[in-house]
Specification:
InterPro entries: DUF2062. This is DUF2062 domain-containing protein. Helix content is 73%, strand content 0%. It contains eight helices and no strands. The radius of gyration is 26 Å and the shape is elongated. It starts with 10 loop residues before the first helix and ends with a helix.
């Protein structure tokens, strides 16, 4: 196959690359910044795409961040590629901070009085595993006579998903707006500098072509 890797990576190596990409996170961040600033679109459209991408990284819809970022960018008439690149904000290095801030803000707004920073990771993992077990059981119960169980799913929704969604919207809006207003002037300056460089290069090429044409004309009209 044309796009098949020559060196097949093991599961452990692929997992390690997910948490630490080749070249490190600094190089990955520079690559994303480079791609964002070189997108062929007006700065405000690119900044809208960045807003959409940053916003969805604070949502609990894992696995759908690309789709949601693209949809929001389309609604806002932003750059879709910029929205996809901006989801880089949600990565293994920032996930814990994003999840904690979203959950804590959600519990505060819902008035539950919970402090997620004082809860153990085991308790949160148990809620995820319990919800997954209920989903599996309920799916299999469609083909059997077993009754569906909703206790663990309800606990997960009330303690994790709902607070995460409510808090993620608020924190995501704040982070998205910060990304918009921070990136807009940077992209404007970069594009102006790039246009100036391209214009200077074009003028230099035009002058060089004019000089070569003048030399060629002189050689043709000169003495034989």
């Amino acid at each position: 196959m044309v796009f098949k890797r020559r060196d097949r990576r093991s599961v452990w190596k692929a997992t390690a690359r997910f948490f630490w990409p080749q070249g490190g996170w600094t190089r990955a961040a520079k690559y994303v910044r480079h791609r964002l600033t070189r997108l062929p679109d007006p700065p405000h459209r690119i900044a809208r795409g960045i807003f959409a991408g940053v916003l969805v990284t604070f949502s609990p819809f894992f696995g759908l961040h690309f789709v949601l970022a693209a949809l929001i960018a389309m609604i806002l008439r932003g750059n879709i590629i910029a929205s996809l690149l901006a989801t880089f904000v949600g990565n293994p290095l920032t996930f814990l901070a994003i999840a904690a801030s979203s959950l804590q803000t959600g519990h505060f707004l819902l008035g539950t009085g919970r402090n997620v920073l004082q809860e153990s990771d085991l308790s949160l993992a148990e809620k995820f595993s319990g919800a997954a077990a209920d989903l599996k059981h309920n799916f299999l119960s469609i083909f059997t006579h077993e009754r569906a169980h909703w206790d663990q799913l309800a606990l997960f929704y009330n303690d994790v998903f709902q607070p995460y969604m409510v808090g993620g919207i608020v924190v995501g809006l704040i982070a998205g707006l910060a990304g918009y207003y921070f990136s807009l002037p940077i992209i404007m300056v970069y594009q102006k500098r790039r246009q100036a460089k391209l214009k200077a290069k074009w003028i230099a090429l035009k002058q060089k072509a004019a000089v070569e044409d003048a030399k060629a004309s002189h050689n043709e009209t000169g003495p034989r």
